[in-house]
């Protein structure tokens, strides 16, 4: 099963997203957004940024 982004409202009334792997484990989470649309845009930004991203040791 593929991973998925979940958009949810936190206890403070802000919107956040988390990326879950196919096994249900949370592998990444986003900052707080004022709107649900903002959180969805954050998901899309992560998708764009991760496409073809390399792994760099620092």
From TrEMBL:
It comes from Nocardioides marmoriginsengisoli. SUPFAM superfamilies: YegP-like (SSF160113). The lineage of its organism: Bacteria, Bacillati, Actinomycetota, Actinomycetes, Propionibacteriales. This is DUF1508 domain-containing protein. Pfam families: DUF1508. Residues 10-57 form the DUF1508 domain. InterPro entries: DUF1508 (IPR010879), UPF0339_domain (IPR051141), YegP-like_sf (IPR036913). PANTHER family: PTHR40606, UPF0339 PROTEIN YEGP.
